Amino acid sequence: MLDDLKKLGRMVDQDGPLKNLVHFETLNQVVYKGEAYPIFSFTIGSENPLHPTLFITGGVHGLERVGAQLAWSLLKTTLDRLIWDKSLQELFKNIRLVVIPLVNPVGYNKFKRCNGNDVDLMRNSPVRAIDKTPFLLGGHRYSKKIPWFQGDLNQLEVENKALYDKFFQSCGKSTCVVSIDFHSGFGMKDRIWFPFSYSKKPYDRMPEMNALTVLFNETHPYHVYKIEPQSQGYLLNGDIWDYFFLELKASNPESIYLPLTLEMGSWAWVRKNPLQLFSKQGMFNPTKEHRLKRTYRRHHLLFDFLLKALYSNSVWSNLDPNIRQKHFNSGMERWYEQ
Ligand SMILES: [Zn+2]
Predict the structure, then answer these.
(1) CA of 58 to the centre of ligand 1 (A)
(2) Burial of 145 (0-12, 13-18, 19+ CB in 10 A)
(3) More confident residue, 145 or 305
(4) What is the tens place of the pLDDT at every residue in 189-219?
(5) How far is the CA of 243 from the centre of ligand 1 (A)?
(6) How do the domains of the chain map onto residue ranges?
(7) CATH code of the domain occupying 2-336
(8) What is the pTM assigned to this prediction?
(9) How many angstroms does the Cα of residue 148 sit away from the middle of ligand 1?
């Protein structure tokens, strides 16, 4: 995967139409057993700090490799299209896309969920849950030998620090931000989770989340996703996206920020090919090539919708108070009052 990303980086840096539209960077290097693993980012489109931003990440959990592969696939298509598609070039004059396809390169290469320090990057922020979390799974600080270890809560791991800096550099002043982090795991359905993880209380931007959900449901009535607050599954300590949300809210209270997590249901892949249960990464990834390609295709619709929804964000992010109240009520009914 790192070689594939380097290849995309070279494609961007060549003299050609992409050179002025895309910025390829190495955010940092993670050193593990004497070897350096780079964290790459690609920034496409507007350099106006106020403009809306879509922030895409994959491979936070190294073992869930399909997330990094999906981020790579969306990025590759976008770069290929940018060369000839004038409507896409036009779109990117007013919005920005940041893609960090592989946040945890050590985990990816070593088939580990955690990073090289055995820290679960998804649970490494200083945010503490205020409602009950499941034992261990909800994040813990007992031992790095047990999964879901949070690490030192006063210090973000190198990978999360790189993510944090890039996030606030590119999204810190944006009027409207959507982030989407690609994961895979148990379950038959593809789920889109939004905050909070640390509390069961309704999330501050729930009315806007409801407005965007209504728009998505109306535009794509046959979409495959179950959209719900993370707290409907289980609560977490140290959730990194809760942390980014709370930090952005403190520094830029006017901004509308929706942190989304796509949790791709892996049971469907396992059911169709039970043998993959015996492979190390089989519980989390499609092991057959055609199923991986289908996974790529499946999420292009969502990606395209999010780009357009950011371009036209006033429709759902700048709600008149009466309409906002209606979305609040409808979201409460949809997600919190069952
Ligand atoms: Zn995950």
Answers:
(1) 9
(2) exposed
(3) 305
(4) 899 999 999 999 999 999 999 999 999 999 9
(5) 17
(6) 2-336
(7) 3.40.630.10
(8) 0.95
(9) 10
